[in-house]
Amino acid sequence: MSADEQPILQLIGLHKEYPGAVEPQVVLRGLDAAFARGESVAIVGPSGCGKSTLLHIAGTLDEPTSGRVVIGGRDTSKLTEQELARLRNRNIGMVFQDHHLLPQCTALENALLPSIVFRDSAADESPKDRAMRLLDRAGLAEHAHKLPGQLSGGERQRVALVRALINQPDIVLADEPTGALDRETARRMMELLAELHREEKATLIVVTHAREHARMLDRTLELRDGTLVPAPEDSR
Ligand SMILES: Nc1ncnc2c1ncn2[C@@H]1O[C@H](COP(=O)(O)OP(=O)(O)OP(=O)(O)O)[C@@H](O)[C@H]1O
Ligand SMILES: [Mg+2]
Question: Which residue of 14, 17, 25 sits with most ligand 1 atoms within 8 Å of its CB, as the best mutation to test the pocket?
């Protein structure tokens, strides 16, 4: 990151605790991180260490107990619910472990959903053209009019990825997007994620358990004791 370029995403002093039976469970403890425009980062760490919690907070779907999430220089804690919903829809694409597609909508309709809420009128490509181009890019051109129930697990995840990219987000957050897929399908999904993030110039943050997936990205951070540290094996 050059000194004059502001990070697209800053996490500042994040603390998160959940109420516990005896005492609160502290999941994040003063976590700081900054992500540059266009970079790709893997986040690793053992089950239950707080990776999903972190991604939900970074994506403004959940609030930290204290600390700030700054997106494109805007402190998200200062935004109204409406401004936040707009920012989320426009600037952030999310892919989850399970696809979260609407069962009654086709692949194309699912991919278009975020563009119905927000439409960038300055874009030179219509949302439908963009969706079809990305579906084609994801090897799904022939499946555009199928329902999620008529698609394989890997195909559904690729539709979810196209949906995450439809509004040209600055940031794509993916929480174990390959978790439910077999090894080969998972590898192809990760390759597609890495390729599309480069083509679309989005910042990509992926939670993954697989080291071979983490190695496809620019750097790897480990969530340890509630903070993010460079992963020991990431000696690039
Ligand atoms: N809504 C909640 N209420 C209470 N505790 C929660 C809640 N969500 C998560 N936790 C707890 O916070 C800790 C971190 O959970 P989180 O889902 O962030 O972990 P993770 O690193 O994503 O794990 P995994 O790799 O298994 O997905 C866990 O101990 C979990 O039980
Ligand atoms: Mg998780």
Answer: 25
